[in-house]
Amino acid sequence: MAYADQDTGHHAGPDKFIWKYVWSQDHKVIAVQYGCTAIAVGILALVLSWLMRMQIGFPGSLEFIDPSAYYQYVTMHGMIMVIYLLTAFFLGGFGNYLIPLMCGARDMVFPFLNMLSYWFYLLSVLILLASYFVPGGPTGAGWTLYPPQSILQGTPGTDWGIILMLASLAVFIIAFTMGGLNYITTVLQARCRGLTLMRMPLTIWSIITATVLGLLAFPALFVSAIMLMFDRVLGTSFFMPYIVHMGQALETGGGSPVLFQHLFWFFGHPEVYIVALPAFGLVSDILSTHARKNIFGYRMMVWAILAIGGISFIVWAHHMYVSGMNLYLGYFFATTTLIIAIPTAIKVYNWTLTLWHGNIHLNTPMLFSIGFISTFLIGGLTGLFLGNVAVDIPLSDTYFVVAHFHMVMAIAPIMVVFAAIYHWYPKITGRMYNETLGVIHFWVTFVGTYLIYFPMHYLGFEGMPRRYYAYEGYEFISESAHSLNEFISVVAILVGVLQILFIINMLMSLKTGKLAGANPWNATTLEWQTPQTPPAHGNWGDELPVVYRWAYDYSVPGADEDFIPQNQPGELGDGREVGDDTGHSSGEGAPA
Amino acid sequence: MAQSDTVEGVEGLAQDWSSDREAFRDVPWGKGMMWIFLLSDTFIFTTFLTGYMTVRLSATAPWPVPSEVFALTLFGESIPLILIAIMTFVLITSSGTMALAVNYGYRRDKRKTFWLMIATATLGAMFVGMQIFEWSKLISEGVRPWGNPMGAAQFGASFFMITGFHGLHVSIGVIYLLVVAFKVKRGDYDNRGYEIVEITGLYWHFVDLVWVFIFAFFYLW
């Protein structure tokens, strides 16, 4: 430690390849490691979704998909996408890369811990993947891992898969904690001069709020994983009621399965916002930059982020209306669920108003950001349906729910992941991506999304249940539903395969992309003002930057250019003197 | 690093939070990080205790009476919770020696800081030792995580899980204390300052505080 707090003096990074790119303590390298690992494991989850779609669209066409295999695909697909891809990518990837750069710091406050965070994450991924190589294969309990079925004989992977899954989650949480402590401390205590909290880009605000949510929500998952592990390995009965299983009364009993659901969703619902909030923040900055216009209602955006973060802790049981919990609780949780829509709606309005009368550049990051607003709006509105108990009970466990959560927390955040990768690619690599390929990638993904998920809403209304292995022979599922399923499967596989465009674009542009320069988007935030591109070890050369204004001085009347970087002194825009509104601006060991 | 323009109260809080560089003035990174970690860890123990209370309510078999289970026969008389009382006393005493160590650390009295931290670690180790004794006594009486002769199976499960997790925290704390103590003795912090002693202390007081809640909710209820 004690490296990032040095204001002056240039440190050359380590020279040897292994210290520079493998056992690196540089937040930028760790971010890329996080991102690449997340994408790799995400591709596996994508392939699993194709296999599921093959079974649903063309039942029996692939002979190796038996019911056990199908449930294993469902479980691993869900868990990987939510935890090991999205959470890791937003916080470990973008959080790591952007927090020190946007805060004008040289690195995270504890680089060594940061490095450990990545290696623990990789370990958790390896433990998860190891479950493919043990007897019985990975668990097929569904990503929610509800006991008692997740640990009873008959569910795939009860021998080893569930143990490895729980162990992997515990290791992931340790990894996240090490990273998360770093992110929060860096943002709170290691910003550069002039960067007050209310001048921070919304990216930082949202990532930091999501990290706080993670640090307070993951403990519930950690504890429930330990308890479930005890139930499975030691034969305790935290979650095991008295059960007659295959004609025999089990020895365990007296536990509370609903307790697990409460603990799981106390984690699970904030988890939705751990994924969604960073997406909100990143998309705000991208929209503002490419619309050449300040973000509309910055302060409201900040308060909305904090409000969403707070309320997200008291909505969890809307996932449990049919669990057998006290029905009156439903009133409370339905109310809070509808209340959380208010700050969320504020954000959507503000994004739209940011675009209004903006000088919109329809490049790839902008397209993906607009795609995000669209998909998030659709997914959010169906969320209002499902938040109401009376509507949720008939729709629960149908494809309506599948459509809802894929729109709102799978596709929408993934749109932002793509937008942000395209947006920051020039800074990370120093080269531009191929715009044509990027635009094609967007239209394929965007149109494909609607072709895949929009019909699922109808399937859900018709009553097609989710989680079934085979849908033949039910009278209430019409012939047209089957043909719709075939259609969805074909599109899903096609769109999935075409994501190769993205991979090709990223890899080819590393070599052939034209040099980007320091600030290709004419953006205001600090990461675009680094002396080198890509930023060197220590980020800022000899002198730390000083911030004079907020992050959104675009198209300021009277300015020479249509943007004013945050570190440019002057009177235009929010160009107050450093320390004007602060009373003091010195920190530990800083030249005041 | 006290500055003359320090403002007290809510206004001062608002001023700190709206300042640049630091939201908490003059709080070292390590200390800030430890506080945030402890907040997260609080949620872990809260979840453990909430889970325990829920299964205690949902259990169908009668819950064993803690004052009888944790009674010890001394001088021919059965005294309820005597061992737990001693353990609690030892742990709270260790918080006292820790607080003294922090004080002497800031006075840069290396020798006293070292010995007080060693005393804290010793008391912590005593606590763990007594916990091992308690565990082996219960195990010899047939208490297991999956069942026990006295009543609800969840009793043993909760007991071993919660005290085990807390004991793990204490054991890690003892190692942490020893490492920092010997670094203090070696003079590693002469240049960097002695905040590390306070940071270690924060962790130690937290572990102590958690024990008070476990004591109240598990042993006294």
UniProtKB/TrEMBL annotation, chain A:
**Keywords assigned:** Electron transport, Heme, Iron, Membrane, Metal-binding, Respiratory chain, Transmembrane, Transmembrane helix, Transport
- Cytochrome oxidase subunit I profile domain location is 17-548
- Gene3D superfamilies, per this entry? Cytochrome c oxidase-like, subunit I domain
Question: Would the keyword Nucleotide-binding turn up in this protein's UniProt record?
Answer: no
| PANTHER family tied to this protein | CYTOCHROME C OXIDASE SUBUNIT 1
PROSITE patterns reported for this sequence: COX1, COX1_CUB
Membrane is among the record's keywords = yes
Q: What is this protein called?
A: Cytochrome c oxidase subunit I
Task: Write out the biased-composition intervals (Basic and acidic residues).
Answer: 573-583
Q: Which organism is it from?
A: Candidatus Litorirhabdus singularis
Compartments annotated for it: namely: Membrane
Membrane topology, from the record: Multi-pass membrane protein
Automatic annotation (TrEMBL), chain B:
Tell me the Pfam families matching this sequence. Answer: COX3 (PF00510)
Q: Which InterPro entries match?
A: Cyt_c/ubiquinol_Oxase_su3, Cyt_c_oxidase-like_su3, Cyt_c_oxidase_su3-like_sf, Cyt_c_oxidase_su3_a-hlx
Positions of the Heme-copper oxidase subunit III family profile domain: 34-221
Note the superkingdom of the native organism: Bacteria
Whether Membrane counts among this entry's keywords is yes
Q: Give the stretches traversing the membrane.
A: 35-59, 79-102, 114-133, 153-182, 202-220
Q: How does it sit in the membrane?
A: Multi-pass membrane protein
- Please state where this protein is localized: Cell membrane
Keyword Transmembrane helix assigned to the entry: answer is yes
Q: Which family does it belong to?
A: Belongs to the cytochrome c oxidase subunit 3 family.
Q: What is this protein called?
A: Bb3-type cytochrome oxidase subunit IV
